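tool=predict chain=A
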Amino acid sequence: MSDSSTEHAAFEMQAGERSRLTGALHFTTVRALLAEGESAINGGRAAVIDLSAVLQSDSSGLALLIEFLSIAKQANRARQYENIPEQIQELARLSEVEALIKDGTSLAPVSSQ
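tool=predict ok
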């Protein structure tokens, strides 16, 4: 039996350069989140992404966060995640990418010299 609240996810822009992800990060929800997040990152509206309202995640959610880091690097923008759920942290540890998710300096903007 599926709870419809766990099948929904949203990318919400907040004040300044803050955004947050809500709901379930699964293969059925990340495609729409990728487009919304890319737009927010490129527009300077997602320097900090709060994950406190993420209810569930699978490896697709982890891949989404890594892709956001890549988009930010290409756009020469910093990226930081706050309140990373334990489920995502565990997936990141198992995948040996924990440093990418926890340390925003891993994919920091390239300096233009």
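Helices lie at 30-42, 59-74, 86-94, 98-102. The beta strands are 9-13, 18-25, 48-57, 80-82.
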